[in-house]
Amino acid sequence: MTAHSLFDLTGRVVVATGGNSGIGFAFLKGCARQGADVVIWDRDQSGHAEASELLRDAGAGKVHVETVDVSNEGAVVDAFASTVQAMGRVDCVLANAGFTTRASSFMDLSSEMYHQLLDVNLHGAFYTLREAARHMRDRALAGDSGGSIVVTGSLSIFHGLKGMEHYAGAKGALAAMVKGLAVELGEFGVRANMLAPGFIMTGMTSSGPEAQQVIDRMAAITPLGRPGYLSDIEGPAAYLASDASAFQTGDILVIDGGRRVKSL
To answer: What is the pTM assigned to this prediction?
Structure first.
């Protein structure tokens, strides 16, 4: 009898939006290390080749890529259909694509800035989650139940951020959406959770003239005494995509080194 890892993902298909880099890539890498077939969705096709090679090196069975702007509803529908055609099924989806902007204050937050962010961070996630839910429901009705839906959250759900109310609003809305999905999709064996990272070193957070000051400050207010690294996402990714999390749904899994529980 062959022993399998508790997090074994052999034969499972995992999709991540914004998968060429950052948290999306780290999520796919964690799953690839457990033998998953992985699918990159990203609107920047220039990173497809490198990300695909790195995921194969990490252990992915198959790697498929789709160039898709998740803010375009039709593009998401087409990309999901293309993914299923290429891979045969989808077992786990991470709705991760997004970006951050910051106004000097809420009063100075323009309608343009507000809508641009929500088009990707909230509406794009909605389109992605809806296609995933439809696919997993239909599979279950055909006798193949199960699946994992994951959304990338943020500590902004719990802490106020000046000038980023639009970003926090999108993440808060998705946290509420996850709860509804958990209730509605439970009968199909599908679970839905949010992964809420703290300060993670990515291209967005570790560049710029003041980056080191920010890193030092965040490390100082984190009980574990350091910033998060993309490798810190890999274990939770394998957990959420695998049967190890079979009884966890409607929840927010916080990965922040203890930042949220430390008083200032």
So the answer is: 0.95
